[in-house]
Amino acid sequence: MKLSPNVTSIGQMAHVAQEAGADAISLVNTFVAMSIDVVTRKPRIANLTAGLSGPAIKPIAVRMVYEASKSVQIPIIGMGGISTATDVIEYMLAGASAVQVGTASYWDPRATEKIVAELTRWCAEREVPRIAELTGAMQV
Hints:
- The protein has 140 residues and is α/β, with parallel strands linked by helices.
- The chain has one domain (10-134): TIM Barrel.
- Helix content is 36%, strand content 14%.
- The protein has five helices and seven strands; from the N terminus they run αβββββαβαβαα.
- It has helices at residues 10-19, 58-69, 85-94, 104-107, 111-125; strands spanning 25-27, 31-33, 36-37, 42-43, 50-52, 76-79, 98-100.
- The strands form three sheets. The protein has a three-stranded parallel sheet. Strands 2-5 form a two-stranded antiparallel sheet. The protein has a two-stranded antiparallel sheet with strand order 3-4.
- A hairpin with a 4-residue loop joins β3 (36-37) and β4.
- The protein is globular and about 55 Å long.
């Protein structure tokens, strides 16, 4: 889909996707990144750039989920840097209806199971009967 030059914010892009018939939006996967070895003055990455993902992008991704959630009624799937229940809750409070665990699964194949157990305990301790109640519940 080619966006109009007038579409400048993540909220506007999300709205355009919804209007074009999207059933949901996933935000985000990776950001194009670069690193240079200051001694050799050469790129550390053979292709010059590569995808940056994981915990480093989480604050950016949470902001993008929040902004998109203010512009659409369709579900938003949050992703980027999720390795704990707290990360999941943060995304949901920002407006995500669901999340995807990626990078954490590389260092711990049972990461998702552990996160679900943590979420179950967190919700029980705070008397949250359905985790869906957290979606968009950030207090400003």
